[in-house]
Every structure is written in C-alpha cells, then in structure tokens.
Amino acid sequence: MQRKSRLALVSVTNKAGLDALAPFLAKRGWRFLASGGTAEHLRKVGVEVIDMADWLTNSFVRQARFAQIADFSRPRNLLAAQVSEALPFGQLFGGRVKTLSREKSAALLVPLAQAEKNADLERMGIEPIEMVVLNYYTLLAATQEPDATVEAVVEKMDIGGPGATLEAIKGNRIVLCNPADYEQLMAEMNEAGDISDELRAQLRLKAIELVAGYYRPLAEFLAKQAN
Q1: Would you tell me how many other CB atoms lie within 10 Å of the CB of residue 147?
Q2: Which uninterrupted H or E stretch holds 214?
Q3: Which string of b and e fits 133-143 if b means at least 16 CB within 10 Å?
Q4: How does DSSP classify residue 92?
Q5: Which of 56-70, 119-133, 161-175, 177-191 has the lowest mean pLDDT?
Q6: CA 158, CA 165: separation in Å to the nearest integer?
Q7: Contact by Cβ (8 Å): 30, 7
C-alpha cells in the first residue's frame, strides 16, 4: 500500500534538475532527508528538509526510550538537544562522513511490504526511505589531473553515495542517479501517481551500472601507479 507521505534521501554533487524535481515531489507528499550542501540547496528552492543529523538524533531518542537508558521525564525537545550535543550525529571530519549509519541502511533495506507496523522500524523510530536521488564525485577527473597522487585521488572517493545506491537497489527503491531521468519520472508520476515497473527497472539498471563503473578509474590509476 502506497503511503500518503513518503521519504526520499537526496545527496547530490550535480544539482542540475533538482530545482524542478524537489518541488514536484513535495507537492505529491514526498519529504526529503538530506545534509550539507544538498539540504541547503533544497531549502533554497522552497521545500522542507529533514536534516540527517536531526533524523538520527530522533532515532536514538526512540531507541533509548525502548532500552530505558535515558530520563524521559524531561521534555522531548530538551532530551533531543542533550542527545544531539552528546553524540556527533552531524557530518564528521569536515564532511568526510555524512550519510553512513545503520539507521539509514535499515530504512533502505527493509522490504516495503513489511514496513507497516514493523517492530524493528518502530524500535528504531524510523520509517522506510522509498526513493534515493544520488550522484557522486567524479573519480575519472581526479585521476586525470596532471599532478594527481594516490592520496589525492583516494580522498575524492565517495563511499556513502555508492553504498546507499546499492542498498536502494537491493531494497527495490526508486533510484535516481542521473538528472537526465528526472523528467521521465515526473511525467509518469504526473500521469499515474507513481512510476511504472518498466521505468523502475531501467533506473535500477542505470544505478548498478554507475556503481560498477564508478571505482574503475581508481583501480586503473592505482594499477598504473603500482607499476
């Protein structure tokens, strides 16, 4: 059963097309989970954003309630502030760690048919993420820099984006990795309220091809440097 309100994870380097996609989805009941520059961009185009740090804080508060390890006589907003201050749920190491978390993985991997009143989701205080809009840093360009070093190229490597893409593929979510596909998705949603199984399969194929090829330039660069 389709939910009235649905959650999308958005984390993009290339923000082309997002100004049209985000408001379109928001009008159809989608909410957005994001962090950093992506969250800032979404707010500028006028859509509400759930910051990843806040989402994780609320999840931890929920888990602490189940485990009875916190003082829940305190107002919820004060407890959340205490948790947020005590635990580094925001970006870490200058943005090096952004979307990596067990909670995000659970929200992408839970079978949607089992998501309603799911005990694990309830305990974690989260809901399923039904769509991801993701694209990554370009490793090929980094390897082609005249003064490229192993350290510099490896530093450019994205882990969270490809990882979330694979989780979304396994969870049979809507996976958008190319702004060129936004228009077709909007057209189908505008006509039918959701996307076709055919488009879902096409997007999944494009996503796995993207991940499969993403690390190839790095592997070739490292092999060249080793020789």
Answers
A1: 5
A2: helix 197-214
A3: bbbbeebeebb
A4: B
A5: 56-70
A6: 11
A7: yes
